[in-house]
Specification:
mainly beta, 3 helices, 2 domains, six-stranded antiparallel beta barrel, 8% helix, Thrombin, subunit H, 258 residues, 14 strands
Amino acid sequence: MLADRIVGGSDTSLEEFPWFALLNYVNRKGVEAFKCGGSLINRRYVLTAAHCLDNEHLDAGDVNVRLGDHDTSNEIDCDEEDELNRVCADPPQNIGFEELIIHPGYRKNDPNQHNDIALIRLERDAVLNLFVTPICLPDASFPGSRPGRRVTITGFGHTGRTRFSGIKQKALVPIVDQQQCRQKWSRITIGEGQLCAGAEFNIDSCSGDSGGPLMSQKLYWTIEGVVSFGYKCGLEGWPGVYTRVSSYVDWIKSVIKQ
């Protein structure tokens, strides 16, 4: 029933959400596939979901991180302006990992998927530019968006028409009241370290979006959640479940300081 789960989204512009990271899995035969997302939080660390790093994709292969990509079908991404005024992004950065750090409380067979959060320490610093920039973390006292407020999700996952979107997508979804979410997900326990969003027809994060950000913007963009799981994709009445980042900021900071 649980699916690592952007349906109903639209294409992003070239420079939107420059912190988004693609996780590129490479199997023993050298076949590559983008299976998850993440968010650059400083030059050296990417925040993602624990289930993206504790799964069969890594049991028999490797993973690297791609930063600064907008359209995976192009080596260099450019906007659609005429040639004289065309703006092109810097080439994407493909960086291996130095360490994969899964939250110690995560258990991949836990149906509740509590503590579904992880960090990737890159093998070298990312080069920051207009198309590769970290997103802000909330602090532990961050109030979070209230139920009904629309927040942003982004990713390259299932669109409802294709298995994998070659162009980075975005969508707005409403935060769902925690008690309402618990009633819907009555067979599992939605904890304080989780938040819910969506439940609208045909607008959702979906397969391939796992680990990606749920974000809000006031003065600046802040990551509020990490895509964890849902029931199918874009199914009306079923909110997606996200790891609440503010609940794990102390852990994140302690890992980064090491």
